[in-house]
Amino acid sequence: AQKITQTQPGMFVQEKEAVTLDCTYDTSDPSYGLFWYKQPSSGEMIFLIYQGSYDQQNATEGRYSLNFQKARKSANLVISASQLGDSAMYFCAMRELSFGNEKLTFGTGTRLTIIP
Amino acid sequence: DVKVTQSSRYLVKRTGEKVFLECVQDMDHENMFWYRQDPGLGLRLIYFSYDVKMKEKGDIPEGYSVSREKKERFSLILESASTNQTSMYLCASEGQTSSYNEQFFGPGTRLTVL
């Protein structure tokens, strides 16, 4: 069974500092994908970044990067130069790809608050 | 841009009522999903659908059913609403990029059952 763990229920970070949101996962499937979503107070889930298990390089999208450590089964999201608009819930999610599993399993989320 | 819409942002119903939550997507996606979101539990999959008239149970289907009569519309039905179904409900539609499937979410419906 696949499982996603986010151990930080909440974080407070000073504006302009870098932020690392932790995510660990558990799967026996060698082929999987990892996703990060942002959920502002408006409620809509916004896709941020994707990392495939066979990708050679860590994914990056603008100020977002994914620190993928396959041996440790971790996929931490790094936000550089945080902004007030980064305040939101952040969810890590995983999909196993080998067994025809179409389900996306989410972690419990981290609420990030950026302090001016 | 993909657009996923949900029929209501906020809904208040009474215990025992039949509740319909509607979701519509405009990108001709085949896969659609219904989740509920509760504090401390993240998003949990209720049902999903690969095609018209096709449905699959997710992780927490009890107390829910779904309907997909048209490709663009996926409905979640609470046959007899109960207070423990008070939650945020999120619909998603899935499309494929060059290397992965991405889920696009609607704005959510916050349902309160009294």
Supply the key terms.
heterodimer, A: 116 residues, mainly beta, 6-stranded mixed β-sheet, 4-stranded antiparallel β-sheet, globular, B: 114 residues, 7-stranded mixed β-sheet, 11 strands, 0% helix
Q: Would you write up a description of this structure?
A:
Chain A has strands at residues 3-5, 10-14, 19-21, 24-26, 32-39, 46-52, 60-61, 64-69, 74-79, 88-96, 105-106, 110-115. Chain A is mainly β and 116 residues long. In chain A, strands 2, 5, 6, 10, 11 and 12 form a six-stranded mixed beta sheet that branches. Chain A has a four-stranded antiparallel beta sheet with strand order 3-9-8-7, with no helix packed on it. In chain A, strand 10 and strand 11 form a beta hairpin. The N and C termini of chain A lie far apart (41 Å). Helices cover 0% and strands 56% of the residues of chain B. Chain B contains no helices and eleven strands. In chain B, strands 2, 4, 5, 6, 9, 10 and 11 form a seven-stranded mixed beta sheet that branches. In chain B, strands 1-3-8-7 form a four-stranded antiparallel beta sheet, with no helix packed on it. Chain B is globular and about 45 Å long. Chain A binds chain B through residues 4, 6, 9, 33, 35, 37, 42-47, 50, 52, 91, 93, 95, 102-109, and chain B through 9, 31, 33, 35, 40-45, 48, 50, 56, 58-59, 88, 90, 92, 94, 99-108, 110.
Q: How would you summarize this macromolecular structure in one to three sentences?
A:
The complex is a heterodimer of chains A (116) and B (114). With 116 residues, chain A is mostly beta strands.
Radius of gyration of chain B (CA) equals 13 Å
Structural class of chain B: mainly beta
Oligomerization status of the protein chains: heterodimer
What is the overall shape of chain A? globular
Run of helices and strands of chain B: EEEEEEEEEEE
Radius of gyration of chain A: 14 Å
